[in-house]
Design goal:
The chain is of the alpha+beta class. It contains 10 helices and 16 strands.
Length: about 325
């Protein structure tokens, strides 16, 4: 996805967000695996190798890459939220998809997790409760305590990495972030999370009040329950499901809501496709007792929750 601006009569400036570019590897390699046609994995390999070159700051990449004539330069907007989120998810999952043989993705993933833990995590005491906030760093200097709901995918990725053999501190970090993401829900009168909030010492400041029926928190609850068996994750999931039923359900489906801070909030008359493809699917999987259903040993779920096989008869699509 390219965004171009005409400068002095020619398109000499453009920018690309990392997530759309970094979130093709699983699908195109699966296509080569299914068809035997190498062109798909070779194309995405070129892109993936190029992106890894930009993960130079503690293993992290910025949200955008800007083209300056014939080269790309990174911005200084570093987070795990919009524009970059699934890039980190796919580092782990491309390693797993290769039957754990594409080690360059494992190395890049572990470096990124270290960078997230050391450079983006902030401990804040708000409303008498201590929370670990997955922050947002600007210009490599200032870390804000602003959390976007999209970042709540990360507990799922970290817990899955631990399931694949990553260190225990990855699981511990996943549980810390999970508690913070759930706090976004339980702290609101509707029981639903805002799109974005800022954690302050004097309380939680909601900067984007809408709830768009997003799946990331439910995804993380599902994976953490599968990995740990801790029933608290089902309990939290049930609380959120009831909030969706109470606030978002309509005669014809479910609707995003305008203001989670208001129990009388208006609805937006909009239901994104990911509510069916992801949110409800993850609710189902969270409460499914049979672990062979979408077994973590046999498949990886892409960023839209579609299952793709782990390539046990790996043929070098990397």
């Amino acid at each position: 996805q390219w965004y171009q601006r005409r400068v002095r009569g020619s398109y000499s400036f453009c920018q690309v967000e990392v997530a759309p570019v970094g979130t093709l590897g699983l699908e195109l390699r699966a296509l080569s695996y299914a068809t035997g046609d190498d062109q798909y994995w070779k194309a995405v390999n070129r892109t993936g190798n190029q992106l890894l070159k930009y993960a130079t700051w503690h293993g992290l990449v910025s949200r955008r890459l800007y083209r300056d004539e014939s080269k790309f330069v990174s911005s200084s907007d570093v987070s795990t939220g919009p524009g970059v989120d699934s890039y980190y998810e796919y580092l782990l999952k491309q390693w797993a998809q290769s039957n754990f043989k594409a080690t360059r993705y494992k190395v890049a993933y572990m470096e990124a997790v270290n960078g997230i833990r050391d450079e983006l995590m902030v401990k804040v005491r708000t409303r008498g409760k201590e929370v670990n906030v997955l922050g947002h760093r600007l210009y490599n200097v200032t870390v804000t305590t602003e959390l976007h709901h999209l970042s709540c995918f990360l507990p799922a990725t970290l817990a899955l990495g631990h399931y694949y053999g990553m260190p225990y501190d990855h699981l511990s970090l996943a549980e810390d972030i999970m508690r913070t993401c759930y706090f976004l829900y339980e702290s609101q009168p509707t029981g639903l999370s805002p799109e974005q909030a800022i954690f302050r010492f004097d309380g939680l400041s909601v900067s984007q009040t809408e709830n768009n029926l997003r799946p990331e928190t439910i995804e993380s609850l599902f994976v953490l329950y599968r990995v740990t068996g801790n029933p608290i994750y089902r309990e939290w999931g049930w609380n959120i499901f009831q909030a969706f039923e109470r606030v978002s359900r309509t005669c014809f489906g479910y609707s995003a809501v305008q203001d989670v801070t208001d129990v009388h909030t208006a609805l937006t008359d909009k239901m994104e496709s990911f509510y069916l493809a992801e949110t409800l699917k993850y609710f189902y999987l969270l409460f499914e007792d049979d672990k062979s259903v979408y077994s973590l040993d046999n498949i990886v779920l892409n960023t839209e929750a579609h299952p793709l096989p782990i390539m046990r008869d790996y043929k070098g699509y990397y």
